[in-house]
Design goal:
heterodimer; A: 134 residues; alpha/beta; Hypothetical Protein Ychn, Chain: A; 5-stranded parallel β-sheet; B: 133 residues; 5 helices; globular
């Protein structure tokens, strides 16, 4: 099967609407298709990967832990908009420490998250074959 | 050109379903192929055969059915995500009987399947066009 570059663009926060969790479901299914997958987080989407989410008070499933599994599915390109973080008073240290093991580098643990400017994100987006926006 | 379409919003609430239909219709009329339309999020509600708009309004579900989008074997290629459908009370005959529920509401021009169908369409088509916010 042909390999294409798939990007999943996450623009909404974790809760309040269903888009974030149903986007993550697509990403996990997509992993089985051995495509070149990346995720982008911008606008309120940056809240999806903030550390320390707690959902007991709202009766929702806390699916944020699932992001830690992405590395095991070879999904290790998570681009986060620098501007979107700054607009919300957030920085990279507020995000979950998501990592993957690099098989080409003796399985060394490396960070999956890369904070990029919107201009850089635009360039990465333009290289994609398929961009799914949630 | 070979297109796949993804519809992320329900009918009557949001323009996305109508715009996606108009896009698909225009593409077919201009000699393009719509390989598959995939309904996700509230978009699964586009497949309800119980939809009854007032007589002077468009019928979004029948509009989709009128496009007659099928594969070579005649199976519908209007595909509804199973997980998104079941959690919103959209069932076909097989899911209804599997879950002991005494009714089903998926229009026969649609079929229920998994998210893999969306990814497959993204791989096989020249363009995947997403309709939603």
């Amino acid at each position: 099967m042909a390999t294409k570059k798939f990007m999943y663009l996450n623009r909404r926060s974790s809760f309040g609407t269903v888009y974030a969790i149903e986007s993550l479901e697509v990403v996990l299914i997509a992993a089985a298709f051995e495509q070149d997958v990346s995720l982008a987080f911008m606008d309120d989407g940056v809240y999806q990967i903030v550390e320390g989410q707690e959902t007991d008070g709202i009766g929702m499933k806390n699916f944020s832990k699932t992001f830690h599994a992405l590395g095991d599915y070879d999904i290790n390109k998570l681009y986060v908009s620098k501007e979107s973080l700054e607009e919300r008073g957030l920085s990279e240290s507020d995000l979950m420490p998501l990592v993957y093991e690099d098989e080409d580098d003796d399985w060394e643990e490396k960070p999956s998250i890369k904070v990029v400017t919107n201009d850089e994100l635009k360039a990465i987006m333009s290289e994609q074959d398929v961009c799914l926006s949630f | 050109m070979k297109f796949a379409i993804q519809v992320n919003e329900g009918p009557y609430q949001h323009q996305a379903a109508d715009t996606a239909f108009q896009f698909a219709k225009a593409a077919i009329e201009n000699g393009h192929e719509i390989m598959r339309v995939f309904f996700y999020h509230d978009g699964v509600n586009n497949a309800s055969r119980f939809t009854l708009p007032p007589q002077d309004d468009r019928h979004v579900v029948n509009n989709w059915a009128s496009l007659d989008i099928k594969d070579a074997e005649g199976n519908p290629e209007l595909v509804v995500c199973v997980a998104a459908a079941l959690r919103r009370g959209m069932l076909d005959e097989s899911e209804a009987s599997k879950n002991s529920i005494d009714g089903n509401n998926i229009h026969p021009a649609f079929r229920i399947s998994g998210l893999g169908q969306l990814i497959e369409a993204g791989i096989q088509c020249d363009r995947l066009v997403v309709f939603g916010d």
